[in-house]
């Protein structure tokens, strides 16, 4: 059963969309029940204290208990702030950092001038040795193990509330959903099991899940959960309520955008591609429909169904993508690496500027073969909407020879970022998420099709599922994904509300190794059943005594 979306992403009220039983759902196991987790977890500083959001916060809480470590954390924060300081203010900020952390009056100095100038890595190297070993014997690390146990809880359809249909994917509907424990809203992409089998889409579905699981970028949709129901495999993804770039390009007045908006979206797409390429993933389906806006006007790349990991030192071949956006080397079925994505970025910059795609006019009826001929043989035309640097970056990104294309040269994504078209973009601040978008979606508007306009899937007939299918499903269903799950706990303030310790920094009962865990709480039905059994036993005992007294001589 599907409901309409809640009025706010948190659901409103004091609990902010959380279930009445949210504390019970997220109840910490006693630390004695976390031994297996403690033995199996990889004791890696970078993973635990840098990459994992809850691990990072708990390590910082531990460092706050030791003045010399607290000072290291303050230096890391200062250096992080320096990285996103506007260029014209960086020298002043740098001088402040050196003065603050290298003054002769400062005590507990554990770093040198060189370490400050070398930046964060030197400080992390220091923290990753003795301090990290000490941290692993503290109650803060024990609390981290408790959070990891909660993270590993089984995920089912009952973990979520289901809301309205948002659209269609290749194998099923996409619905809005809300985590009962936290109130966090997501989009649930359902892959119908029989439809996957009928279309032989197992490898495609698993590939998308594996890639989404691997990528952690604010410019690519995140996978938070993967689970199965009786009829479907479900990917729970970042919800993007602001519509897609195709809708905004063509349905919001005159087709196309002003230059500042084109620059902003192109810069964020460039960062998303760079993050994918760092993981050796080529996206291969860059088009306006696949670029989604969130509530605040930031964009993410979505639908990674055609993305693929390129083996180290190799090239791949595959004639996939969308007509009008496929690069010449893809159309020609030649081998390639990351080059098709930079071609796609050029197509998007062109379309956002001109209000039409580079090789086909809006609503022009033309055969696929003709569009592909234009891509291979013709030069795109530029109107007076294009400034000199916009025209230049489009031409460099849509260079037909991938060896000469911007983004495919030795400097890679850095070369794209350095182009004069992006001269007004501070990429350090953009990647930190502190650049204000030029357009913010109206929360009262709906930037998508009406739910009644979304075509329904027909029923799949003549397909039976067997044990081989179950083996595939077991590879797909992983439960929660670590970093997005931890971010959810922090963003919804569940971490703040639950991460409580004893008075004066002592261990609470659930972290006390010497105090046995509380017995599990029984459900209402269990309590009623036990009371019924107890009363029945008491009644039998009374009847037995009466019977014995009646039969006595």
What can you tell me about this protein's structure?
The protein is α+β, with helices and mostly antiparallel strands. Helix content is 43%, strand content 9%. It contains 24 helices and 10 strands. A hairpin with a 5-residue loop joins strand 2 (173-179) and strand 3. Residues 106-114 have low confidence and may be disordered.
Write the layout of secondary structure elements.
Elements: H1 22-25, H2 35-40, H3 45-51, H4 53-63, H5 67-83, H6 90-102, H7 113-118, H8 120-127, H9 130-135, H10 139-151, E1 160-168, E2 173-179, E3 185-192, H11 193-198, H12 202-214, E4 223-228, E5 232-238, H13 245-250, H14 259-278, E6 281-282, E7 291-293, E8 299-301, E9 308-309, H15 328-331, H16 339-354, H17 368-377, H18 388-397, H19 412-417, H20 427-431, H21 467-476, E10 479-480, H22 482-491, H23 494-498, H24 524-551
Antiparallel strand pairs: 1-2, 2-3, 3-5, 4-5, 4-10, 6-9, 7-8
Helix pairs in contact: 3-4, 4-10, 5-6, 5-8, 14-16, 16-18
